[in-house]
Structures are given as structure tokens and as C-alpha cells.
Write a structure and sequence with these properties.
Layout: H1 5-12, E1 17-22, H2 28-40, E2 46-51, H3 54-71, E3 75-79, E4 84-87, E5 92-97, E6 111-115, H4 122-129, E7 139-144, H5 152-157, E8 166-171, H6 181-190, H7 193-199, H8 217-220, E9 231-237, E10 243-251, E11 254-263, H9 268-278, E12 283-288, H10 304-310, E13 314-315, H11 324-335, E14 344-346, H12 351-359, H13 375-388
Parallel strand pairs: 1-7, 1-8, 2-5, 2-6, 6-7, 9-12, 11-14, 12-13
Antiparallel strand pairs: 3-4, 4-5, 9-10, 10-11
């Protein structure tokens, strides 16, 4: 796939440290693979791609990178367990996760891509990765969508103002040339204003630490004791202490949460029984944590998913975890979208989830939710809302190859 004009400007720049802040689906992955390949085309270079987590690195880049390098006939050896590729010219490209930053110490890097760097702890850069750069240079490409002016990514974005070795760009989704204008307009209607500005226009928004900033007591709390439905919808998180569930019904206006359940020192069997006791005779649809396919909170050794299925519940969930960011965006958009739609309301008795929406914050200077006990109820709500009202789309095909020459030594 040829580069867009915006991508070319970044790719052709020669500054040692390049910071690309862009909207969703700008084409950051394609550009990152291209830059990794270009750097590795020189003999005996060590090149890393680092994502916020090892799993993200594998999901985002691994298959596309392998396909690219195989098409170029550059591959000498692929190590699937280490997510590393040795090239015929002696260079190596490796994928890493910043969630275990201590494992990244002690390597002399010639080229580094730090993807979604606003979601990475700044210590991973300043204390671990920065010292690993090669003495002979070591170039870095930072990429990602912004996460507010309190995040360290904003400081790096401004770095070019004080250091001649740095260069920054800020591009919208449409600048990338990958997403049709009508789809971006649809996203504008689906998302709330601040989320759209951040995710599609690449604006640095100020959130003051509050995660669910669109929650409004007057707008999102509705006391309707006559609301009834033959179908019960349940978002569920499997943390043992507490087990958490948000219970809702659906109508023409959207989701109406009528109850929440927290059970401390519990397991999935007890949560299932509690739901059955409260909602006898109802059809129950559960939106669980995707980890339920492997996780076991029951003493009997059964998976959480099998317990839910055996209880007669209908299960709806993603094959893999939706990103925390996507769950949060879905909830904020359902609370109040840019077009003014409100698709998520709560009965006043839902005290735990209301408390969570009012009080859950990010860890200072990060986009990571604070671990203060509120996150489990938020996760339970997020699994359900993100499945019913997703705000991401994945329709763009970027699997088109581009070639360079390689010097073999």
C-alpha cells in the first residue's frame, strides 16, 4: 500500500526522534512496519517494536510483519515464542511489551518504534528504553493517539520546541487517507464530542482524571419502578473479590440498568445462583469477561464460561479482550453521544455502578484506570456496553506490500 502524503512526510524525515500523534486508523501500523523494515534493511541492525503489552504487540503487528518480510524474501529465521525475526543480512526485528519493562534492559537498539506510547508508563521510556539506544545513534518513532495534556505523551509532542533532534506531527484520521469521509462522519454521530476530537482529530483533551466524564446524574439516572422485560442482560467481571455484575433491560431508548451485584470472596457458581434467585423465569443473556474461556473461580475446576453455559445463560462476548480504551469510549458514548443520544440509564438502586461512574479516575499522568476497587464494576458494565454499542470499525485492508532494496553483508 503506498504511503499517503502525511505518512510520507513522517517517513522521509531524518530527525532522530519522531513523534507522530494521529487519529484512529491513520495508518500507524503500516507506517511502523515500513520504518522497521527500512531500518533493518541495513546489515546487523537491532530493531524493536514496543507496544503497551506483549499481547498487543503480537495482535497488532506480528502477522503483517511476517508477511511483509517473507514477501521481500528477507527472512532467515522466525522465532514464534520470542516474536523475533532474523534477516539474511544479520539484522533482527523483535516485538516487545512494555508491561514487563525490566525485561527490556541492556540491549543496544538501532531503531525503536514505541506504539501507543501514551498508554505506556513513562518510566519504561526514560529509565529502560532510552538507555538502550545504540551509542552510534538509535532512532525512535513514537506513534499513538493523544490521551490528554496531563499525559507524558503531550510533553514528548512538544519536545521539538526545545530540542533540534526531535520532530512532531499531528494528523487527523482523514489525513491518513485510509478511512472514507462518510465513515468518519458516522463516527462523529456515534461518539461524544471529546472522544471524537481525541480519537479522530488527534486533539489533546483535558479530562481532569475522570474516566466517565459523560455521566450526569440528571441525565442518566431514571427511576422507573414499572420497567419490566422478559429478557435480562448482564455484564459480568470475574474478579474474585468482589465478583461484579451489572443487570439491565433493553427498550427503544437503549439499556436501562436496574441492578448491580457485588459478592466478596465469591466464585462464579455463587454469582450464577444469585442471578437466578433474583430473576426467576427470565431469559438471561450474559456479556462476560472474555477471559472466562480459561479462568476458573470455581473449586470444581470448571471454567467460568462453562459454568455460565451450564446454567442455561446465553453468552455473548468477544473472542479477545476489547481494549480498555474502547470499553471506556463505548460507555461514554452511550451515556451521551455527540448527536445528543442517551442510550444508557440507571435506576437509583444501582449504587455501586453509579459510584463507579462518578468516581473512577485515571492514575495520575496516565490513561490507566486507578486500582481502587471501582474498576471491577466498570469492567462488568464495559463488557456489555462495548458489545452492544461498539464504537470501533475494522474495514480497512492494509495488506498491500511495498518493497525496498537490502544490503546483505
Amino acid at each position: 500500500m503506498p504511503l499517503s502524503q502525511a505518512q510520507k512526510e513522517v517517513a522521509n524525515d531524518t530527525h532522530r526522534f519522531r513523534v507522530l500523534v494521529s487519529g484512529r486508523r491513520f495508518g500507524k501500523t503500516h507506517l511502523s512496519i515500513r520504518e522497521l523494515s527500512k531500518a533493518a534493511s541495513k546489515p546487523n541492525k537491532t530493531c524493536w517494536y514496543v507496544a503497551p503489552s506483549y499481547r498487543q504487540a503480537k495482535q497488532i503487528v506480528w502477522l503483517k510483519l511476517k508477511d511483509k518480510l517473507r514477501n521481500l524474501n528477507w527472512v532467515k529465521r522466525i522465532n514464534e515464542s520470542d516474536l523475533s525475526i532474523q534477516l539474511i543480512n544479520g539484522s533482527t526485528i523483535s516485538l516487545k511489551g512494555a508491561d514487563n519493562s525490566d525485561s527490556l534492559r541492556g540491549v543496544g537498539l538501532d531503531f525503536l518504534v514505541l506504539d501507543e506510547f501514551a498508554d505506556i508508563d513513562e518510566k519504561a521510556w526514560f529509565e529502560v528504553l532510552r538507555p538502550t539506544l545504540s551509542d552510534t545513534g538509535g532512532n525512535v518513532l513514537f506513534t499513538g493517539t493523544p490521551k490528554g495534556i496531563s499525559n507524558w505523551a503531550y510533553d514528548l509532542y512538544k519536545k521539538e520546541r526545545e530540542d533540534k533532534n526531535w520532530r512532531s506531527w499531528q494528523y487527523t484520521t482523514i489525513d491518513g487517507g485510509q478511512v472514507p469521509a462518510e465513515e468518519i462522519e458516522q463516527a462523529r454521530q456515534d461518539l461524544d464530542e471529546r472522544t471524537f476530537r481525541q480519537e479522530y482529530e488527534a486533539k489533546f483533551e483535558t479530562y481532569s482524571g475522570i474516566i466517565y466524564y459523560n455521566f450526569n446524574v440528571n441525565r442518566n439516572i431514571l427511576k422507573d419502578d414499572d420497567a419490566d422485560s422478559s429478557i435480562i442482560y448482564v455484564g459480568m467481571d470475574f474478579n474474585i473479590d468482589p465478583m461484579s455484575a451489572v443487570v439491565a433491560i433493553r427498550n427503544d431508548a437503549g439499556l436501562y440498568c436496574i441492578d448491580d451485584i457485588s459478592i466478596y470472596g465469591s466464585n462464579t457458581d455463587e454469582m450464577v445462583q444469585e442471578i437466578k434467585n433474583r430473576y426467576k423465569g427470565k431469559k438471561i443473556i450474559v456479556y462476560p469477561d472474555p477471559a472466562s474461556k480459561q479462568r476458573k473461580t470455581s473449586a470444581g475446576g470448571k471454567t467460568d464460561l462453562s459454568i455460565l453455559v451450564n446454567a442455561g445463560f446465553e453468552i455473548k462476548m468477544r473472542h479477545q479482550h476489547p481494549a480498555i480504551r474502547d470499553r471506556i469510549n463505548s460507555v461514554n458514548s452511550a451515556l451521551h453521544s455527540t448527536s445528543g443520544d442517551i442510550r444508557l440509564r440507571f435506576h437509583p438502586r444501582c449504587k455501586n455502578i453509579i459510584k463507579t461512574l462518578e468516581r473512577q479516575i485515571y492514575k495520575p499522568g496516565t490513561s490507566v484506570p486507578e486500582n481502587n476497587g471501582l474498576e471491577h464494576m466498570a469492567d462488568a458494565l464495559g463488557y456489555m456496553v462495548e458489545f452492544i454499542y461498539p464504537v470501533t470499525r475494522n474495514s480497512i485492508n492494509t495488506n498491500v506490500s511495498q518493497t525496498w532494496g537490502m544490503k546483505v553483508k
